[in-house]
Amino acid sequence: MFKDLDPILSSPVRLAVMSILLTVKHAHFNDLLKETKTTQGNLSHQLKKLHEAGYIQIEKTFKNNYPLTIVSITEIGTNAFKVYVENIKKYLHLNENNT
Amino acid sequence: MSKNILAPHESLAIIQKVVSSTRHDYHIQRKFYVLWGILIAVASFTQYAILQDILTIPWYYPWVLFPSIGLVLSVIWGYAGKKNTLSYYNHFVLTMWFTLYIAIGISLYISLFNQTSPFPNILVCVGIGTSISGFLMKNRLFIFCGLIFGLGAIYCLYLPFHEQLLLNGACMVIGNVVPNLFSPHV
User: In angstroms, how far is CA B177 from the centroid of its own chain?
Assistant: First the structure.
């Protein structure tokens, strides 16, 4: 239906995660969980898909003996997001002057 | 959030909603500013005590001891802070203060070399950092505190050295420590 739109980003949670990551240098898993209002399992699954696509970097470490996941957007992810937004604009017939 | 494939207008709505609602003040490291404010103030007051013969230690001890404590704690806290969400705003503010503290260190060295007072330069550096932070946060208290530092730097020029120490310490407490402890926006 929307064949030019990146299927990786055409999911609410993945798109929300990418939108958040664009505004931060890196994000904590729990902060992403709060912002996306999804479940831990679903977020892990969506992060895995974004990671497989090369859109995000995932660093697993420990803080006070608890596992900690730090996520950041990659250059590929940033470019994919830009293209995605441009394609949305095309579909919605938006241009720079009326957005 | 549902798992459906999004239509373009839904995508745009999600992007707009997330970007506007995402917190931009993630884990602001106010403890860095409080720490350095206290350390510089304590170093100033300690040197004043030395000059007044209240303490009998070499005059430069406070300026070696307290900044060293600050440096060690900043490295430890900086490493720990890396494990939190960091917004670009905070990244910029932390980088700016890091650069200004280097400027303060160089300024101290130049002043020692030339045997002049470093305090006007220190107050100008801290004032610039505080004002820029205030403008970024849209926090008038910090903009005002930046001005206090600027006025303090000028007033320093008319004071003898030992009184400059007191003024520097007081400016650090009033313009840096107090607003960082009590302002809800920092």
Answer: 9
Distances (CA, A) of A90 to B12, B13, B115: 12, 15, 66
ipTM for the complex?
Answer: 0.75
A60 touches chain B (CB under 8 A): no
* A12-91 has CATH 3.30.70.2750 classification: no
Closest alpha carbon to A63 in B32, B140, B81: B81
Please give the residue that has the higher pLDDT: either B141 or B79: B141
User: Tokens standing for A64?
Assistant: 């006070």
Could you state, in order of their start, the residue ranges of all structural domains in chain A? 12-91
Q: Which tens digit of pLDDT belongs to each residue from B75-129?
A: 888 777 666 677 777 788 888 988 998 898 899 889 888 988 999 999 999 999 9
Domain ranges of chain B: 24-182
Angle of helix B140-156 relative to helix B119-137, nearest 10 degrees, comes to 170
Name chain B contacts of A28, Cβ cutoff 8 Å. Answer: 83-85
CB contact under 8 A, A92 and B8: yes
Residue pLDDT, tens place only, A64-85: 778 889 999 999 999 999 999 8
Q: State the smallest CA–CA distance between residue A88 and chain B in angstroms.
A: 5
